[in-house]
Amino acid sequence: MATFDQLHHLLEQSLRDFQAESSDLSDTQEQELTQALHRLTGRLTEILSTNSDPSRTGELLPVSDPTVSLTAPISLPGTPQIHFVTSCDGVVLMANEVVGDILGMDLTEMGQVSIADYVAQEEWRILRIHLRALDAPHKFLNRVLTILPAGRPSQKVACVVTPMFDQSQKVGAWHWGLTLEAEDSSAQAFIHLMQSLESQLFAGQSMDGCLTQICDGLVRAFGFPFVWVATVRKGCVAQLRGHAMTAVFDWESQGALWWREVSQQGELIQACEASEISLLSPCCPPTSAMAWFPPGFQFHQAWGVPLAFQEDCFGMLVVCSESTQAFGPTVLGWLQALGHEIERLMARGRQLDQWRLQSAAIGSMHDAVCVTDPQGRLEWVNKAYAALQGSSTQLVLGSPLSSFPHEELQVRRPLSDSSAKDLSWVKTKVMKTGSNGESLVFEQVVTPLVNEQGHLTHFVVILHDVTARTTQELLMKHQAYHDPLTDLPNRIMFEDRLEQALAQARRNGTLLALFFLDLDNFKAINDYYGHQTGDRVLRVVAERLATCVRSTDTVARLCGDEFTVILQGLEHIQDIRQVAQKILECLIPPIQLGKEIIPIQISIGISVYPNDSTDPHRLLEIADQAMYRAKECGGQCWYFATPEWNAE
């Protein structure tokens, strides 16, 4: 088995040979192969122990794979690390020298010894289950393990296991990184800070405030003189989200002006969109290089950790140093891990911002909104719903929603079935009494909420006040079917009522009478008193006619001074005569309008179903003709279309 040092020297020699013999390759091919060799070298550099020679590895590029997480004890400068590679069964294939020092493992036995011999038995069993579940690229396992060094007491270590894939993207081996707990109090304080930031987000702390605390922690705990974090959305100018520096540097005098210039640089945006940690400002930068820190700050290096937390939004953590020796492989690996923690924190912060925005939006909606459990009991209401009930939010919680559509939901899906896959929203109209006692009409939409397993957990209920709309619709409908002058049914409604009355008469075998009424002297009233007075006369006539019939009968105005009356459910012709006589007597008294006393006279023509006709239009024509016969008889009388019925 080859050791890490042998592989390291082999890669260095390969890189030198390639650079010497790459004249026949195109620029693109040379660049791609160089990057590949650098990535391999960087991967090996990460695996080397902290005892490796800094001068031999300091210029190698770091890797991008996360190998530590701040949710467990993290790897800091000076903290011993164990690196080795095992087969998928746990057999150790390669290891660094620290493995022998800390675990007591004999490196000459590589290929024969298993990592299972150095891990608590139960933890190894659980660990294997998780490892077998990691079958996608770029995933890693982060746990705290109890290791059992040979002949020594057990220790707790942070363990990061990363899958290694072959060309067919199948897992061929596992890389293990074990880190002993750091004793440095500054590091522990920073770890506690990172672990508390998520709680601060829940408590209302802004993301800029959290990022500023991270920058300040890097400055205070580890002595980096200047740290800053920026984010940029595609098509927008970069935003400075947080920064911190040691007391010897003055931000006010140079920092703000520097940022205004830097925020619009394309190089900054490109660096934010990168995928790997990179050296932004080397010791001897070219004159055209972008200023990654204010010109008055004399720093030797600046490293950028790219942050990706949205599809169209990126960011970068920039750490500056006054020394060229501040960024060894371990420090860069730790900064890379910190970048992943910042990404996770920003993702959670964005999620919390979305939740708060949604809650605020729903809470301030004009429509009443509530959330119920599957049985319709209130679990959350917004201000509009509480105002509708005339009560506080807390008092209504737990009570049943009176308008909950149990029957409609039961028809679509039995409530005993916990699956909501086939259940969609339900819309109903409900009547409610407002806090002031007024009658209100609401359009209620009930939408199910389901969990990841597709099981119903809640209902969201939105009550949209449609009282004004409903009132307007009813008014428009009333105007469409009623006479604007007398408010009696117009010709459209009369014809519909006549059709319905005839259908009922056919079913019940009863008589139906149709009266056609006309004022005999209405033209003279209009000519003498004027049209306004004529209209007032028509309204009085309509009111008197309505008092002469039953609620099941219909009085309508066709046009001008022409009225109709539909009498239904009659058994005898004599019943029709009585109503006709009642109408005549009702209209005999003159109409008094102010000082004017206006006499009126009316003629009534009567047709009867089924004797005269069974067709509604023909019945109306026959009644109209009978009305003219009544006028010929002198008016102020009724006349049947069937002559023999006119004799009492």
> What percentage of the residues does DSSP assign to strands (E)?
15-25%
Classify the helix fraction into a percent range: 25-40%
Average pLDDT, rounded to a whole number, is 80
**Number of helical regions:** 19
Domain count: the total is 4
| Count of DSSP strands | 22
Structural class: alpha+beta
Write a concise keyword list for the protein shown above.
Beta-Lactamase, 40% helix, alpha+beta, elongated, five-stranded antiparallel β-sheet, 4 domains, 648 residues
Description:
This protein has 648 residues and is α+β, with helices and mostly antiparallel strands. The protein folds into 4 domains: 4-181, 2-Layer Sandwich (Beta-Lactamase); 186-359, Beta-Lactamase (2-Layer Sandwich), CATH 3.30.450; 364-470, PAS domain (Beta-Lactamase); 482-646, Alpha-Beta Plaits. It is 40% helix and 24% strand. The protein is built from 19 helices and 22 strands. The strands form 5 sheets. A 5-stranded antiparallel sheet has the order 2-1-5-4-3. Strands 7-6-10-9-8 form a 5-stranded antiparallel sheet, with helices on both faces. It has a 5-stranded antiparallel sheet with strand order 12-11-15-14-13. Helix 1 (4-20) packs antiparallel against helix 2 (27-47) and helix 6 runs parallel beside helix 10 (329-363). It is elongated and about 135 Å long. Residues 47-78 have low confidence and may be disordered.
